[in-house]
Amino acid sequence: QVQLVESGGGLVQAGGSLRLSCAASGIRFSIYTMGWYRQAPGKERELVATITSGSSTNYADSVKGRFTISRDNAKNTVYLQMNSLKPEDTGVYYCNAQHWLGAAPLLYWGQGTQVTVSS
Fold it and tell me: Which residue of 29, 55, 63, 96 shows the fewest CB atoms closer than 10 Å?
């Protein structure tokens, strides 16, 4: 069974920091691109950051310079360090694992963790 379990969400004041973790099981973690997505109330889910198996990173413009994605393959865990948080960062944050084999992708999602940033 594939499981992605997020943790670390919570309530924080604007300007504060949170560190999200996503522990993966049931996959060969080291070969997967990992990502964080978020969904704010009334909005669609959007990409926040990704990190490839080679540790190349990509960030949404809205979080560049504030968020850092990283991975620890020995722990099968991906992290999202969130600094200088803003109220607009509020939402449910989802962990994603993706791997391409030929033309068909393998995609997995966690259940999400709530992040609330107060002004």
Answer: 55
